[in-house]
Each structure stands twice: as C-alpha cells, then as structure tokens.
C-alpha cells in the first residue's frame, strides 16, 4: 500500500470527523466523534513517527556526489 495515500485518507477522515463533531448536538454523539478523532489522530501519529525515524535514511539526495566528502579531506 502507498503510505502517502493512507495518510491522505486518514487526514480527510480526521477533517470529516472534526466537522461532524462540531455539528453534533447530543453529548453521546459528540463523544462518539471524539473517539473517532482520537483514533484517527493516533493512527496518523504512527505514520508521522515512522517518517521522523526514516528521515536520517533518506536516500533521495541523488544530486549529491557520494564521494565528495572523501575528496574534500586534505591529507
């Protein structure tokens, strides 16, 4: 599965749930929506934590020369 699509879907669900919670009049309905918001937020948090852990291993820097550091060291 595509992580970006999952995160986008979770973000959309979070927005929908927040809007529904703000429109709810009954306390039980508000509580139900708040639980959905909490669960979706926690799910998004898992992906953000994973992305934060993966940042040091980002290999998308194709423009950089991997041997540049070795040539710049004076001996």
Walk me through the structure:
By secondary structure, this protein is mainly alpha-helical. Helices cover 72% and strands 0% of the residues. It contains three helices and no strands. Helix 1 runs antiparallel to helix 2. It is elongated, with a radius of gyration of 21 Å. It starts with a helix and ends with a helix.
Radius of gyration: 21 Å
**Cα-to-Cα separation, first versus last residue:** 48 Å
Structural class: mainly alpha
Sheet with the most strands, sense and barrel status:
none
Shape: elongated
Mean pLDDT: 82
Helix percentage: over 70%
Low-confidence stretches: none
Strand content: under 5%
Q: DSSP helix count?
A: 3
H/E series: HHH
How many E strands? Answer: 0
Question: Could you outline the blueprint of secondary structure elements for this entry?
Answer:
Elements (H helix, E strand, L loop, with lengths): L2 H21 L3 H28 L13 H5 L3
Short description:
By secondary structure, this protein is mostly helical.
Task: Give short descriptive properties of this protein.
single chain; 75 residues; mainly alpha; 72% helix
């Amino acid at each position: 599965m595509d992580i970006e699509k999952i995160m986008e879907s979770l973000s959309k669900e979070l927005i929908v749930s927040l809007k529904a919670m703000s429109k709810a009049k009954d306390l039980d309905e508000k509580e139900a929506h708040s639980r959905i918001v909490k669960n979706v937020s926690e799910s998004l948090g898992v992906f953000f934590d994973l992305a934060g852990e993966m940042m040091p291993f980002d290999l998308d820097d194709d423009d950089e020369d991997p041997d540049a550091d070795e040539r710049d060291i004076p001996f």
